[in-house]
Design goal:
Radius of gyration: 15 Å
Family: Belongs to the universal stress protein A family.
CATH architecture: 3-Layer(aba) Sandwich
Protein name: Universal stress protein
Number of domains: 1
CATH topology: Rossmann fold
Domain UspA: 3-142
Number of strands: 5
Number of helices: 6
Organism: Haloarchaeobius litoreus
Structural class: alpha/beta
Helix content: 40-55%
Order of helices and strands: EHEHHEHEHHE
Distance between the termini: 29 Å
Largest sheet: 5 strands, parallel
Strand order of the largest sheet: 3-2-1-4-5
Pfam family, one: Usp
CATH class: Alpha Beta
Length: 142
């Protein structure tokens, strides 16, 4: 039986460390690297936007996500491990958990997120929420 391991991947150092951990510990599994475009990030800048801001923001966010997934593919290639890459849109904790459920993932690997201070208090920790809501085991890499 082939294990499916979901790796949540963003532009944080913790996320890169989580991917490196997964490449080493789960090299025999099917590794799925998921990057999420969070529409909530656009809302913080909307007050100063022009009418086309949302579509421009999304295109830019998608390009950034594609670059992140290319970086993940390079890391995996250097480790001689094949990965699948996926891009989703939504709130990160919910999207990670839903993806794991809908795609029969057996495990989730995530970095301890880089939020701190007021941002962490208001938005919470992605890793903490995933651990609480996940139907499968979660490894949080620090």
């Amino acid at each position: 039986m082939d294990r499916r391991v979901l790796v949540a991947y963003d532009d944080s150092v913790q996320s890169t460390e989580a991917l490196e951990f997964a490449l080493e510990e789960f090299a025999d599994a099917t590794l799925v690297v998921l990057t999420i475009v969070d529409p909530a990030e656009a809302n913080t800048r909307r007050a100063f936007s022009m009418p086309t801001f949302a579509s421009e923001w999304y295109e830019e966010a998608r390009e950034d996500a594609d670059e992140l997934l290319a970086e993940a593919t390079e890391l995996a290639s250097a480790a001689h491990v094949d990965i699948e890459t996926e891009l989703a849109v939504g709130r990160p904790p919910k999207t990670i958990v839903e993806y794991a459920k809908e795609h029969d993932c057996d495990h989730i690997v995530t970095g301890s997120h880089g939020r701190s201070g007021v941002s962490r208090i208001l938005l919470g920790s992605v890793a903490e929420t995933v651990v609480r809501r996940s139907p499968v085991p979660v490894t949080v890499v620090r």
